[in-house]
Design brief:
The complex is a heterodimer. Chain A is an all-alpha fold. Chain A has helices spanning 3-14, 17-35, 41-48, 57-82, 91-102, 106-139, 144-161, 166-181, 206-224, 243-265, 271-285, 298-313, 315-321, 327-338, 346-350, 352-384, 388-407, 410-428, 434-456, 463-466, 468-495, and strands at residues 183-184, 191-192. In chain A, helix 10 runs parallel beside helix 12 (298-313). The termini of chain A are far apart. Helices cover 71% and strands 0% of the residues of chain B. Chain B starts with a helix and ends in an 11-residue tail after the last helix. Classes of the chains: A mainly alpha, B mainly alpha. At the A-B interface, helix 8, helix 9, helix 17, helix 18 and helix 19 of A face helix 2, helix 3, helix 4, helix 5 and helix 6 of B.
């Protein structure tokens, strides 16, 4: 089957009434939650995750993907209107978007953000369709050693790029790996780290980790500090951008898309880094860089395009190699595994409806975002006025029932509280939670691949260096570390 | 000096990692390690625990040197109340059903907020628990009792 045939097949899956409804529901719910202050895509997916368990796999993933970019989009809306990014990916949009809103140009800012995102989404979708099949074919050549090295590289990249401290990032990865090992060992059946708790034999639930680590931590962090929310109450008039706006923002959107697509594929880099990089690029090449930060429309178009392109490109390594490149993708991977699908190159051949249906639904979802959200901006703004003291107890309540509903067991709810406490302490000590999630998802897989590789090589660890592809990944890992460690070391020696 | 250490973010972070690593290795001693060729269930976790102890110790040492402090205040009060909300929910849900458990979770977490307005919180708990219970039961068709015994 060629690309067009595949896409047509995908659309036939995505356009079924049921899947369309789930896509719509996901986008709407995602935006709704993403608009709420302090809730990014991760928390949104974590909270709504249990809702999808009962759905068929295709519908579940379509809905989760919808929640993902819905929440992302909701985050940029709040960045523009209230200078409050729902998550780091839209933090850059605040710089110029909020200034535009203050100048009474909130409408065009929102419209340009939506259009740039949509454009990037289209390109991203096409990119997955084009790059997916050859990558998956390539990945079929991977043996256990290659997978182990690739995962090592992905984890290292996530630890290094997670902003902040590398050593702490690696520690978080290791903690995640250990958390992933809890439960009965696949080979021997030995229960590990279960402390006699029967419910732990199947491992610590995915929802438990995500909700505890992100939702609880986020809420507590918000409560510890003073609320500094200035809701932009002026009425939004005139959504449509002028001709000049369109002209000024079209090239930045294209460049942003390109940057986002490249960064999105790399392991460990989420949308946050690409939106930041694209903003810097625009500022560098602008004729008049001083306009940036004062309401330059390029400063909205480029990062918005970049973060959406990256959000789409993120799916490529996850769907084709089974390697999550960001915490959100780790979540999506977890969702697939719960549905009984092993993420990896075989997804495309064994579940073509899922692969192509998901891709097609991404495009539909992006279209829905534009069609749906521009008219609904008024409603989103009014949501922002809901006081936080009403919001957070409701969030916690949803987290409780969400955890309970997975296994109908209170143990998951207690565990979630425990993970929440641990997560809060770690975040407070400036340890990034994202690498932990990646480690948690990859933990059991890594152990399995390590075992297999070592069994095949009769216990000789040189297998990771003698197989060329594996060696390439190992070198990649070392390079990533070296690139990040070198500047820090130089700074240190210069500083004395 | 002791208080100084407890305020150092890297020292504390390293300490947490070392503790987790030690726990992983100590508990993992009960599992057969096997050989590099045939790894037992204890092999990978023991290696990971060891790495964590080493890296954690490094972070601790760095914290001793730099002494950078934890930013802002600790939110122990909201953390405690939110943990309480989860525990209450877990206790009430199997015994009394959805509405009481949900309402308790809302109330307990509301107590952790910066300002607690009792009337408002009660109304919020009532409205949210009933609405959510309806949603779960009638829209998502989940098999839980609204209030146990009804």
């Amino acid at each position: 089957m060629d690309i067009l045939g595949n896409l047509a097949f995908g659309f036939s899956v995505a356009f079924s009434l049921q899947n369309l409804a789930y896509c719509f529901g996901g986008v709407l719910l995602g935006t709704l939650i993403g608009v709420l202050p302090g809730i990014g895509p991760l928390v949104a997916i974590g909270m709504l995750f249990p809702l999808t368990f009962t759905l068929p796999p295709v519908a579940a993933l379509i809905m989760l993907a919808g929640i993902y970019y819905g929440a992302q989009y909701g985050g940029s809306t709040t960045s523009i209107l209230v200078n409050l990014p729902g998550e780091t990916a839209s933090a850059v949009t605040c710089l110029d978007g909020y200034q535009m809103a203050r100048q009474g140009r909130a409408g065009p800012a929102l419209a340009v953000a939506a259009i740039a995102s949509f454009f990037a989404g289209c390109v991203g979708t096409l990119l997955i369709a084009l790059a997916g099949p050859p990558l998956a074919e390539w990945a079929l050549l991977f043996g256990a050693a290659e997978y182990f090295s690739l995962m090592l590289m992905a984890l290292m990249a996530s630890a290094v790029l997670a902003s902040g401290d590398i050593v702490k990032g690696i520690c978080m990865v290791v903690v995640g790996l250990l958390l992933g090992l809890v439960g009965a060992d696949v080979n021997s059946g030995t229960p590990r780290y279960t402390f006699g708790v029967l419910e732990l034999f199947d491992g610590i639930g995915f929802t438990v980790i995500v909700v505890g680590l992100f939702a609880v931590t986020e809420v507590v962090s918000n409560l510890e500090s003073k609320d500094l929310r200035e809701v932009f109450t002026r009425k939004i008039v005139g959504l449509m951008p002028t001709k000049k706006d369109i002209k000024d923002s079209s090239w930045p959107a294209v460049r942003g898309t390109a940057i986002g697509s490249v960064f999105g594929v790399l392991p460990g880099t989420g949308p946050a880094l690409s939106s930041f990089v694209s903003y810097m690029v625009e500022k560098k090449i602008a004729k008049d860089p001083s306009r940036f930060g004062k309401g330059a429309i390029e400063g909205v178009a480029a990062p918005e395009a970049a973060n959406n392109a990256a959000a789409q490109a993120n799916f490529i390594p996850m769907l084709t190699l089974g390697i999550p490149s960001s915490a959100v993708m780790a979540l999506m991977m977890g969702a697939m595994m719960i549905q009984g699908i092993t993420p990896g190159p075989q997804v495309m051949t064994q579940n073509p409806d899922l692969f192509w249906g998901l891709i097609a639904s991404m495009w539909i979802g992006n279209l829905l975002l534009v069609v749906l959200n521009l008219p609904l901006v008024g409603i989103w703004v009014s949501l922002l006025r809901v006081p936080y003291r009403w919001l957070f107890p409701s969030i916690i309540m949803f987290c409780c029932i969400g955890n309970y509903s997975v296994n109908n067991s209170p143990v998951d709810v207690y565990l979630c509280a425990l993970v929440g406490v641990l997560g809060y302490v770690l975040v407070k000590l400036e340890c990034e939670p994202a690498p932990l999630i990646l480690g948690y998802v990859l933990g059991p897989l890594m152990e399995e691949y390590l075992r297999r590789a070592m069994l095949l090589s009769r216990g000789d660890p040189s297998v990771f260096f003698t197989r060329p592809l594996s060696l390439a990944f190992v070198i990649g890992t070392v390079l990533i570390l070296a690139v990040m460690v070198a500047p820090a070391a130089r700074r240190k020696s210069e500083g004395g | 000096m002791k208080i100084g250490l407890l305020g150092s973010k890297d020292f504390l972070a390293g300490l947490v990692f070392v503790l987790i690593g030690v726990l992983a290795v100590a508990v993992g001693r009960d599992y057969p390690v096997g050989t590099a060729m045939r790894m037992g269930p204890g092999y990978f976790p023991t290696v990971l625990g060891g790495i964590l102890v080493l890296l954690g110790a490094w972070v601790m040492a760095r914290g001793l040197r730099s002494g950078e402090r934890v930013q802002g205040d600790w939110g122990w009060k909201p953390l405690a109340f939110i943990a309480l909300a989860f525990v209450l929910f877990g206790l009430l849900m199997p015994r009394f059903g959805l509405v009481p458990a949900l309402a308790a979770a809302v109330l307990a977490s509301a107590l952790g907020g910066r300002e607690f307005r009792s009337k408002e919180a009660l109304v919020l708990a009532l409205v949210m628990s009933v609405l959510t219970a309806m949603l779960l039961l009638y829209v998502l068709k989940m098999p839980y009792p609204l209030i146990a015994g009804w």
